[in-house]
Amino acid sequence: MDGSIAPRSKYERNSELPILPLGKAQHEIMEEEEQRIREASRLNQAKAQRQKADEQEVIRLEKEQNLQ
User: Fold this and answer.
1) Where does the record place Basic and acidic residues bias (predicted)?
2) What is the mean pLDDT of the chain?
3) Tens-digit pLDDT profile for residues 10-28
4) What's the number of domains the chain is made of?
5) Which of 1, 6, 16, 37 has its CB surrounded by the most CB atoms within 10 Å?
């Protein structure tokens, strides 16, 4: 053995490439992933807005109780 790397079999899979679902092109997979990221971002933003509104409501109620 001379230390060189054996040539790949023409049937050996390149492990660096992702396995794509049948019938889907790489750009379709990327578009779906981007859509999931946008949706998750939108949901996180809505959750943060609800949490902020809840915190403001608590502050308002505490102030109202202190005035009584």
Assistant:
1) 51-68
2) 83
3) 666 666 766 777 777 888 8
4) 1
5) 37
